[in-house]
Write a structure and sequence with these properties.
Helix content is about 40%, strand content about 25%. It has eleven helices and 14 strands. It is globular. It has one domain: 3-Layer(aba) Sandwich (UDP-N-acetylmuramoyl-L-alanine:D-glutamate ligase), CATH 3.40.1190.20. The protein has helices at about 30-40, 55-70, 115-120, 130-135, 135-150, 170-185, 190-200, 205-215, 250-265, 270-280, 295-305; strands at about 5-10, 15, 25-30, 45-55, 70, 75-80, 85-90, 95-100, 125-130, 155-160, 185-190, 215-220, 225-230, 235-240. The strands form two sheets. Strands 1, 4, 5, 6, 9, 10, 11, 12, 13 and 14 form a ten-stranded mixed sheet that branches. Strands 3-2-7-8 form a four-stranded mixed sheet. By secondary structure, it is α/β, with parallel strands linked by helices.
């Protein structure tokens, strides 16, 4: 039996979120792959995280969080010379605005040698993202190394494009992200990312484009318009879930974690997509990335309510 259902690789970021109308910043946790790991663990998956943190209070807080959430930290390295990344969220007329203090973070210094081969090869799914690769060249190489090790061992590879143009220019991002997409079994682009990366705007054309690159499953999220889940043989459009929107921070990451947990449980990408669509919607009903992430019981209750 695999040691873990999901092994995620990437960068955690300590979050400071200023709600509208307030002057204080509320502490929280972020980082797309960390969010995914926690979301999956809350759905009952066995999850481990591969990253590096600083020997600082923010890194210590993450270690406490992951342990409380049941995310294995045996592959988390602690740096004595580099800091844990931070980000700030403010809320304006056009939505939430991010400001980052991540240059030189401990996670950005990981290399292929920091990827534990046995952990990756004994997982059911390896998950990484465009951000995991954008933070540095060595981190990009580490992700590619992990992906190739996973594929060689028959481990499924999941990849979220998660484009951040503040971190790298579009041409470089497109080259790296699409090279990674070719190694992925499950690909989760967001619509805005995909428009930049492919030059296409129609969701079906985007899905076709990414299926041609090689993934067996493409789950294209459409923001407040729902999602499309597709294989080469079938595709399904998922309607948006009605919720009281408060803060969409991390909703795509919750989709990732919930999708992977449910796919591993059922083997059905369309059931996993419907489940993840509801989980992601529920996660927008509170502030911050981690605090409002639903547990399985809440998602299943919401799905029953929607079915009536």
């Amino acid at each position: 039996m695999a040691s873990f259902d999901i092994v995620a690789v990437g960068e955690p970021l300590f979050e400071l979120n200023q709600p509208p109308g307030e002057k204080i910043f509320r502490p929280g946790f972020g980082g797309d792959t960390s969010n995914c790991a926690i979301a999956a663990a809350r759905q009952g998956a066995r999850v481990a995280y591969v990253t590096a943190i600083g020997a600082d209070q923010f890194g210590d807080s993450f270690m406490e969080l992951w342990r409380a959430e049941g995310v294995d930290t045996s592959a988390v390295k602690k740096s004595q010379t580099a800091h844990t990344g931070l980000y700030f969220i403010t809320h304006g007329p056009s939505g939430h605005v991010f400001s980052y203090m991540r240059a030189g973070s401990a996670a950005s210094r990981i290399t292929p040698d920091d990827v534990p081969a046995d952990l990756v090869r004994n997982a059911r799914v390896l998950h990484a993202s465009g951000i995991s690769q954008a933070i540095s060249s060595s981190a990009a190489d580490a992700v590619f190394s992990a992906m190739r090790q996973a594929r060689a061992a028959g481990v499924l590879v999941s990849y979220d494009t998660n484009l951040r143009l503040r971190l790298w220019p579009l041409d470089r991002a497109r080259a790296v992200i699409h090279a990674a997409a070719e190694l992925a079994d499950i690909l989760r682009p967001g619509l805005d990312d995909a428009i930049h990366l492919t030059g296409l705007a129609d969701p079906d054309l985007i899905v076709d484009y990414y299926l041609r690159l090689g993934p067996k499953i493409v789950a294209l999220t459409l923001g407040d318009a729902g999602a499309v889940v597709a294989t080469k043989e079938r595709r399904e459009r998922l309607a948006p879930v009605p919720v009281k929107l408060v803060d969409a921070t991390g909703a795509g990451d919750v989709f990732d974690g919930a999708f992977l947990a449910e796919y591993l449980r059922t083997g059905d990408p369309f059931a996993a997509g419907r489940y993840a669509n509801v989980a992601a919607a529920l996660s927008t009903e509170g502030y911050g990335a981690v605090a409002p992430m639903p547990h399985r019981a809440a998602v299943e209750w919401a799905m029953r309510r929607l079915a009536t």
